[in-house]
Design goal:
The chain is α+β, with helices and mostly antiparallel strands. Helices cover 36% and strands 14% of the residues. The two termini are 40 Å apart.
């Protein structure tokens, strides 16, 4: 989907068209507007509620406002101590530390006939699109475990277990992007890469190992030694890579 008059760039959403598409899909499926008590299934897409695992010790609360779009092509990210300006040709956003939604995650997004999605389930802005991807993954996970409106306790527990893992790893990634105080798991991950140059595959991590590695290399991290298990390329190619990253 492309904003009218915008230059082609990456993957993005024309939000008015996206809303219209979702409305058409809902109508085709027979989904109607109503009060919360009327439905067999309630999708909570509002904002963090009382049930919330706070991540303010690691992430800032942010306020987002639109700014002028970027240049003719490419993506730019300009950071200062308190703000991030994230721009592409069709749009620009300024993310500033302030009195926005509290960062963190819902402890049990699937409970009874309610499913918390979006910012009702996770607030962890990493200014790279992963927050939206995490919301989409949550929807797919809910569908996977949704044979009927009220799942068994075991089904709901498994949805919440997988979602908690994915959301905590998303919080770790956002913490890395904001240079916040790391969680214990993130600190362990950093030490492992700094020592051996290895990023293990982790189930339900919304960020690929390559993205983690690329971020650390871009930040100037150079492993103390290269773990043989990290050598997933031919030796001559590995030598060329290491020569370029000295």
């Amino acid at each position: 989907m492309t904003a009218p008059g915008a230059e082609p760039f990456g993957v993005r959403f024309d939000m008015p068209a996206y809303r219209a598409l979702l409305a058409e899909m809902a109508a085709a499926l027979g989904i109607e507007r109503g009060e919360a008590e009327d439905g067999a299934l309630l999708l909570d897409c509002t904002a963090p509620g009382q049930e919330w695992i706070d991540a303010s010790a690691h992430l800032p609360s942010i306020v987002v406002e639109p700014i002028a779009p970027g240049g003719a092509e490419g993506e730019t990210i300009a950071t200062t101590g308190d703000t991030v300006e994230w721009c592409t040709p069709p749009w620009g956003w300024k993310l500033a530390r302030g009195g926005g939604l509290p960062p963190g995650r819902h402890p049990a997004p699937r409970a009874g006939r309610r499913i918390a999605l979006g910012e009702a389930a996770l607030v962890a802005e990493s200014f790279d699109g992963h927050a939206l991807s995490a919301a989409h993954a949550d929807i797919l996970r809910a569908i996977e475990f949704m044979p009927h409106a009220e799942p068994s306790a075991r089904e709901a527990a498994e949805v919440n277990r997988r979602t908690a893992i994915a959301h905590q790893r998303m919080i770790d990634w956002a913490t890395e992007r904001w240079s916040g105080p790391p969680t214990d798991e993130l600190a362990t991950l950093r030490r492992g890469f700094a020592a051996r140059g290895r990023m293990p595959y982790r189930d339900w991590d919304p960020v690929t190992p390559g993205e983690w590695i690329g971020w650390w290399f871009a930040r100037g991290v150079r492993p103390d030694r290269v773990d043989p298990s990290a050598r997933a390329v031919p030796q001559d190619q590995l030598i060329r890579i290491l020569e370029r990253t000295r």
